[in-house]
Amino acid sequence: MTAPDPLHAEGLFVSLGGLPILRDVSISVSAGEAVALLGGNGSGKSTLVRTLMGLVPHQEGSISLFGEPLATFRDWSRIGYVPQHSAVAVANATVREIVSSGRLAHRRPFQWLRAVDHAAIDHALDLVGLAGRAGWPFAALSGGQKQRTLIARALASQPELLVMDEPLAGVDLHSQGGLADLLGRLADEGLALLVVLHELGPMAAVLHRAVTLCDGRVVDRETTGAHECQPGPPLPSLTGLADPISGVRS
Ligand SMILES: Nc1ncnc2c1ncn2[C@@H]1O[C@H](COP(=O)(O)OP(=O)(O)OP(=O)(O)O)[C@@H](O)[C@H]1O
């Protein structure tokens, strides 16, 4: 029997402030798969990832994580989440403290960090090239360095599913290339990756398929007219659209 997909959602409807934001959205990500979530401003990308992470309630539809319904899922150490940069406000914490918080789901309450936690934190800092900035105040970092810190926090958890909301925003092109290579390697090792993107940039080489939202619905990029929706950037390295559930490319 094959293992259930790390992420599987069907028929999601979400309303916020009385307005429909997501309509009948279905999406899945399997182990080792890197999926882009695309769409114009306000199309519902952040709302979708927040819904999938249980941060926004859905009115209809179902979400399962590693085969477990969201309502009863508890093993959050298997999941890394990188929120939009602007959603994170930390006053005095150092880079290392923020990355250390990525180990929280592995720890029992009131337990000190163990050697295995320190090793995972060091490794995550190393992976994103911030080992030399571990003692710096987060607030003193550049936008791109802050973004890399948040990615390191998610990686410190050693997740099997990584959900990222515009992780490369504000990161310079050289560092984007390094992070894309890193994410590609992790996907090759079995990590499931869902990443909200405005610009594909170096991630194009890493992605297996894309799901595009338009006005809260999943759309077929090839049949959606530009006048109806902002369909997002072209996908130079992808051969075709994939069905959001089956993952089969056209
Ligand atoms: N708490 C809220 N209450 C009411 N409406 C909201 C709320 N949060 C988001 N929205 C609306 O939902 C729609 C989708 O927003 P969302 O942030 O999910 O889009 P997005 O695709 O991530 O946009 P962007 O690319 O600009 O980040 C927008 O019209 C937004 O105004």
**Rg over alpha carbons:** 18 Å
Sheet with the most strands, sense and barrel status:
6 strands, mixed
Q: From N to C, what is the helix and strand string? A: EEEHEEEHHHEHEEE
- Major sheet strand order: 6-7-8-3-9-10
Full CATH superfamily name of the domain at 7-87 and 160-219: P-loop containing nucleotide triphosphate hydrolases
* Uncertain ranges: 234-250
- Percent of residues in helices: 10-25%
What fraction strand? 15-25%
- pLDDT averaged residue by residue: 84
Ligands bound, unique: adenosine-5'-triphosphate
Decide which structural class fits the backbone: alpha/beta
Spatial shape: globular
Keywords: ATP-binding, Nucleotide-binding, Transport
GO molecular function: ATP binding; ATP hydrolysis activity
Pfam families: ABC_tran (PF00005)
Family: Belongs to the ABC transporter superfamily.
Describe this structure in words.
- The chain is globular.
- It has a domain at 7-87 and 160-219: Rossmann fold.
- The chain has five helices and ten strands.
- It has a six-stranded mixed beta sheet, sandwiched between helices.
- It is α/β, with parallel strands linked by helices.
- The chain starts with 6 loop residues before the first strand and ends in a 31-residue tail after the last strand.
- A hairpin with a 2-residue loop joins strand 1 and strand 2 (19-29).
- Bound molecules: adenosine-5'-triphosphate (ATP).
- The site of adenosine-5'-triphosphate (ATP) has 12 residues, from strand 2 and helix 1.
- This is ABC transporter ATP-binding protein.
- It comes from Tessaracoccus lapidicaptus.
- Keywords: ATP-binding, Nucleotide-binding, Transport.
- Belongs to the ABC transporter superfamily.
